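Hi C.,

You asked whether I'd gotten around to modeling the 160-residue construct. I have! Everything is below, sequence then structure, no commentary in between.
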Amino acid sequence: MPSQRLIEIIVGLFLFIAIMALTVLAFKVSGLTSLFPPKSYFISAAFDDVGGLKIRSPVKIGGVQIGEVSNITLDPITFKAVVNLRIANEYNDIPDDSSAGILTAGLLGDNYIAITPMYNKTVLKNGSSIQFTNSALVLEKLIGQLLYRTGGKDRTDKKS
C-alpha cells in the first residue's frame, strides 16, 4: 500500500498538470496568443468605412482563412481607415492587383476581410498595399437611407 506522502505527491502533480493544461487551453481558445505562431508577412489596405471590423478578424480568400487583421489606424491625410493584415507565409502568391472587401458573416455576424485575387503575375510582398478596396456595408446606414427615402416621398405627396 502506498504511503500517504506518495499519494499527496501524485495528487499534487496531477493538479499541477491539470492547471497547466487549462491555462494553455484558455490561451488557445481566447486567441490571445499561440504557442507556435505561423510565419507571416504584413500587407495593408485603406477603406472609407470599416464598419464593425475588429483586430484579429479573419482574412479569407474563397472562404478559407489565410490571415487576420493585425491593426486598424486612421490615415491623418486621407481620413481613411488603414487596415494592416497579417497573412500566413504559405499564401505568398496573392496577385498585387487583387481587391479586398469587408463582408459580414451572415445577416448580423462579425465582419471579415475577403480578398478577391486577380490575374497579375506580380504578387503582394511584405509591406505591400492592396489598392482596390470595397468598404463595409453598415446596416444602420442602409436602414437610415431607407427611412429617409420613404419619409421624403410621403412629405412630397402631401404637398402636392
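If it helps when you're writing up: The chain has a mean pLDDT of 87.

Thanks,
B.
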